[in-house]
Amino acid sequence: MRLMFQDEAGFGRINKPKYCWCQKGIRPLVPCHHIREYRYAYGAVEPMTGEGCFLVLPYCNTNCMNVFLNHLSESYSNDRIILVCDGAAWHKANALIVPENISIVFIPPYTPEMNPIEQIWKEIRKIGFRNEVFHTLDKVVERLCKSICSLSADTIKSVTCRKWIVSTFN
Fold first, then answer.
1. Please, are residues 110 and 87 in contact by the beta-carbon 8 Å criterion?
2. Dist. CA 38–CA 50, nearest whole Å
3. Do 68 and 97 form a contact (C-beta atoms < 8 A)?
4. Is 23 part of a structural domain of the chain?
5. Rounded to an integer, what distance in angstroms lies between the CA atom of residue 5 and that of residue 120?
6. Strands 38-46 vs 2-12: parallel, antiparallel or unpaired
7. What is the residue range of 109's domain?
8. I want to staple 85 with a disulfide (CB 3.0 to 4.6 A). Which of 1, 91, 120, 149 is the partner?
9. In this predicted model, what pLDDT tens digit does every residue of 38-72 receive, in sequence order?
10. Are 137 and 11 a contacting pair, CB within 8 Å?
């Protein structure tokens, strides 16, 4: 039995400038883009072990969620997965095909703090998307994949494992 937390996040060519260090008296120049091209990282993490499963897909919709669920199911084909999700429309759609080894449980509405994978998206943005302009969407996807692959099980565990998860599900 695996308890995994699932979410998706958009990464694209539009960026938000972040704080950075520079020499006193010098105002830093930070590049900024407002091009609205995105790809979406779908992920599920197991906070107790630090294991994760990720896919980069073109949209946030039911079809892409079906692709992700199928990938997750195949990746853990010998396990039963309790998958904790938020209430996004594509998580509850009639066309959603939930594999037999996955059961979906929903967190209450407007409580992203209950989904620890939200912290993974912050970590990926911190390590791979800080004050940088990407000239193509392919470069965004390349960086996103590199950032996801750089996440070790220890990092995932340290960022997502919370006392309430351990006490509730251990």
1. no
2. 27
3. no
4. no
5. 11
6. antiparallel
7. 2-13+33-169
8. 91
9. 899 999 999 999 999 999 999 999 999 999 999 99
10. no
